[in-house]
Design brief:
Blueprint lengths: L10 E9 L2 E9 L3 H9 L2 H17 L13
Antiparallel strand pairs: 1-2
Length: 74
């Protein structure tokens, strides 16, 4: 399912909180209504976001070694 163009109004709040030896990132998205939420979830965005955060976790654990353009000043 595709979202309407333009994308509906939304608000994203991202928090970073110290947790043990790491950082807990919490992201909250507020949408105008349940129908918009259902349409966004139907795109599979939560699976894509989760996969991205798992990848980011792995990169942070190894200090971004071997990641092109990260920390290289480019």
């Amino acid at each position: 399912m595709h979202l309407p163009d333009p994308t509906p109004d939304n608000r994203v709040e991202t928090r970073f909180d110290a947790e043990g030896a790491g950082t807990l990132m919490t992201m909250r998205m507020t949408l105008p209504d349940p129908q918009t939420r259902a349409a966004m979830l139907a795109t599979g965005m939560e699976r894509g976001m989760e996969a991205s955060y798992v990848r980011l976790d792995g990169m942070v654990e190894v200090g971004f070694q071997g990641v092109t353009g990260v920390g290289s000043g480019r």
